Amino acid sequence: MKDKVFNKPIKKQFEFDEEVASVFDDMLNRSVPFYKENLNLQIDILKNFLKESDKIVDLGSSTGTFLIELAKKSDKKLDLTGIDNSDAMIKRAKNKAKAFGVDIKFIKTDFLNYEIKNSNAIIANYTIQFIRPLKREKLIKKIYNSLKNDGIFLMSEKLVTNDKKLNKTMIDLYYDYKKKMGYSEYEIARKREALENVLIPYTMEENIEMLKTAGFKEVEVIFRWNNFATFIAFK
User: Fold this and answer.
1) Global pTM?
2) Which domain holds residue 207?
3) 135 domain-assigned
4) Could you give the number of structural domains in the chain?
5) Tens of pLDDT along 88-107?
6) Domain annotation covers residue 2
7) pLDDT digits (tens, 9 = 90+) for 25-51
8) For position 14, what pLDDT does the model report?
9) 135: domain CATH number?
10) Residues 93, 157 contacting (CB under 8 angstroms)
11) Are 87 and 108 in contact (CB under 8 A)?
12) CA-to-CA distance for 100 and 122, rounded, in angstroms?
């Protein structure tokens, strides 16, 4: 379905409810620059580090796209788990996985309270940015502790920059991108209002520092477009 969530007045803050879940795949493809390319890049890199029966956990798995694509492309049998606190997202993820014939476990829970153990890789694509800053560093430390030695954490985030003029320029360029993808100025403005104080981005440097403070021995940026980036961190 086509995303038309914000072509009408919004009466609440953004949340991953049934309405959003029903159009979420279209929303991602039209709202996140190079979403498919970045997803494929992550999978292609990750495949080189995974072994048979490795455990991969996707935090904020939404409709399951990342894990489904990983299952389809991997030549190994992997232990795949998606975690999301939205009933609507979990339902769609399960249906998609069944349709593609892939074996993935999807769990409806708050991953802030869920115990993740002995994972080989943890994924968080555009998820950590929705965690309140006071809880964010604690979550990253929890992720670090949940990984086996040499485990991998992949994290995609929206960014801000300290230079005010550059930051405004980056935002304007992003809105131009969304217009090219078919969103109206009205829809862009309504979504911006709905996300205010819900999505709280960090700078590139703050994200890297947060990962290193948690204990990750090496952090690299594997993708960046304007104010979007993907980090890979090794335990």
Assistant:
1) 0.88
2) 18-234
3) yes
4) 1
5) 899 999 999 999 999 999 99
6) no
7) 777 878 899 999 999 999 999 999 999
8) 41
9) 3.40.50.150
10) no
11) yes
12) 22
Domain membership of residue 9 (yes or no) is: no
Please give the pLDDT value at position 3.
37
The b/e string for 1-33 (b: 16+ C-beta within 10 A; e otherwise) is eebebbeeeeeeebebeeebbbebbbbbebbbb
Q: How far apart are CA 232 and CA 46, in angstroms?
A: 10
**Alpha carbon distances (Å) from 216 to 116, 124, 140, 208, 223:** 17, 15, 10, 10, 18
Q: Quote the CA–CA distance of 169 and 151 in Å, as a whole number.
A: 36
Residue-wise over 72-107: b if at least 16 C-beta within 10 A, else e?
A: eebeeebebbbbbbbebbbebbbebbeeeebebebe
Residue 1 belongs to some domain of the structure: no
Residues of the chain with pLDDT under 50: 1-10, 12-16, 20-21
How far apart CA 217 and CA 109 sit, in angstroms, is 29
| Locus of tokens 């039209």 | 30
Contacts of residue 45, Cβ cutoff 8 Å, sequence gap at least 6? 222, 232
